[in-house]
Amino acid sequence: MIQDPPAKSIWNIPNALTALRFVLAIVVFVLIPLQWFFAAFVVFVIAASTDWIDGYWARRFGQTTQLGRIFDPFVDKIIICGAFIFLAAESGSGIVAWMAVVVVAREMLVTALRGFIEQHGGDFSAKMSGKLKMVFQCIAAGASLLVLSYADAPPPDWMAGTLVVSVWLAVLSTIYSGLEYVVVALRSLQQAG
Model pTM? Predict the structure, then answer.
């Protein structure tokens, strides 16, 4: 008698890392209003790093799960949107409210489009522009936290410059990748009739 292969456990290393990243995101959101910016930077870097590790582990060892497919991008959105929202509230962060709105709006739009397209059988896989956007957003948030950590003295010129460049790269790549997903969604809708 042939037996079905054992079901994949949702309690695996990639999903545990994603859960850890969620907890670390909450820690970052507590540290920013307390103005413990360097500690927030360290925790943010650890959280952002686990995103790459859990994805690699899941693919390398065949531990992808339906939970991971939903939970991982959700936590990515929480940490990035939350970081931009909290940083927009801090004077001197280099991030202003409208930038946080752009980031949150793009994530909401792409999530809605992905759900609609995949529900109708279309492919709405992640694009390279979306991955680059995430990299630029992480650099911008990290640079902002580092600049804010210089409470008693101005940050070095190179750091202030990095902040400005990374924030604008994050905003522009957010807009570009959002528009790219809109175009893909429109094409899928036209093909579906």
Answer: 0.89
Per DSSP, the three-state class of 140 is: helix
Domain ranges across the chain: 13-192
Spell 77-107 as b/e; 16+ CB within 10 A means b: bbbbbbbbbbbbebeebbbeeebbebbbebb
Exposed, middle or buried, 51 (CB in 10 Å: 0-12/13-18/19+)?
Answer: buried
Cα four-point dihedral sign 124, 125, 129, 131: positive
Q: What CATH superfamily classification does 13-192 receive? A: CDP-alcohol phosphotransferase transmembrane (TM) domain (1.20.120.1760)
Q: Is 5 left (phi over 0), alpha (psi -120 to 50) or beta?
A: beta
Per-residue pLDDT of the chain (193 residues; tens, 9 = 90+): 555 444 566 788 888 999 999 999 999 999 999 999 999 999 999 999 888 887 777 778 777 777 778 888 899 999 999 999 999 999 999 999 999 999 999 999 998 988 877 777 776 677 789 889 999 999 999 999 999 999 888 999 999 999 999 999 999 999 999 999 898 888 877 876 6
